[in-house]
Amino acid sequence: MSAIRTVLGDIAPDALGATDAHDHLFFAAPALAGQELDDPAAAEAELAAYRAAGGTAVAQWTPFGLGRRAAELPAVSRAAGVHVVAATGLHQAAHYDPALVRGLHARGLGGFFTAELTEGMVEGDDPDGPRGPARAGMIKVAGMFHGLDDHCRRVMAAAAEAHHATGAPIGVHHEAGTAAPDVLALLHGEWGVPVTSLLLGHLNRFPDPGLLRELAASGAFLAFDGPSRAHHATDWRLVDCLTELAAAGHLRQLLLGGDTVVAAARSVTGDGPGLPHLPRVLRPRLARALGEEAARAVFVDNPARAFAVDWRGGTPYGRR
C-alpha cells in the first residue's frame, strides 16, 4: 500500500498536508560548530509554532552521523502534532571521520541505508549503536561544488541500491545549487533511479533560468529552500524562479523548504525566520503570484507525491 513513512509510522499520502519539504529539527556539522540544532525542547517549540502558522509536516533532511537525534524525533513530532519524515544517508566526506565512512562501506552502505528505511534508524551517531523503532522515510546524499568526488559517487551508488530495495525517494544537497546535471547522470543515467524519485535540493542558490528549465525537463522534483542565512543573496529570486517554472508547465515538480541549519535561525529560540516563515510568509506570497491552487500544489500535493512509496514492493507512488 502506498504510504509516506514518518517517524511515528506510515500515513496515507493525503494525510501529510502542508509540508516544509526540506528542513532540519536537529543538525550538528563540524563546519557549524557552536551553532548546533541539538535541543529537543527548542525543536518541539519550533514545530509547535510552525503548526500554529498552518504547517502540518516537515521533512528533516539530516542524514546519519550529523546529530539527527533519531531517538528524540518521535516524541517531538507527537508533542507538536506535526508529521516528521526523517532521512538516512550521508553528507559530504568533510563532515565525517574517514574511519567511520570506511567502516560503513565495509559493512555495506546500501544495506545500512536500507535497514534504516525498513527496520529502524540507529539512534546515535555510532552505526553499531541501538536501533530504535522510528524508520527513515527518505535518503539524503550530497554533491560537491560543480562536481562529484569519489565519496559522493560511492554514497550515491549506495543510495541507489537502497532506493531499488525500498522505493524510497532520494534528496540531494547540491553545494551552492551546482552539479545537478552530474547527479542526474549518475543516479538516473548510471544507476537507474527514476527521476521522479529524485528531489534536487538548494536549486535557488544557483538560479540560472536555463539550467532550471533543463533540470525541470528531466522530470525530477525541484526543491527550493529559503530564506537561508548563508545564501540570502539569492532569496529574492525564489518566487520568480517558481513562477517561471510553473509558467513553463513544471508546477507539479516544485517543492519548498526552509533549510534551518543553525540555532540562531529558529523563530522561537533564535531570531528567525525559522519554520513558520513558510506557511506564514512564503505560501501567501506564492498564492498572490500564482493563485491559491498553485500554492496548494507546491505545499500540499507535490510533497504528498514526492515522499510516498509502495514500501512493500519498492514501487514509487503516484509517479507521472
Automatic annotation (TrEMBL):
Keywords: Hydrolase, Metal-binding
Annotated Pfam families: PTE
InterPro entries documented for this protein: Metal_Hydrolase, Phosphotriesterase
UniProt entry tagged with the keyword Nucleotide-binding: no
Sites bearing N6-carboxylysine, chain numbering: 140
Presence of the UniProt keyword Metal-binding in the record: yes
Signal peptide: none
SUPFAM superfamilies attached to this UniProt entry: Metallo-dependent hydrolases
PROSITE patterns: PHOSPHOTRIESTERASE_2
Coiled-coil regions, chain positions: none
Family: Belongs to the metallo-dependent hydrolases superfamily. Phosphotriesterase family.
Name of the featured protein: Phosphotriesterase
Species of the source: Actinacidiphila polyblastidii
Lineage of producing organism: Bacteria, Bacillati, Actinomycetota, Actinomycetes, Kitasatosporales
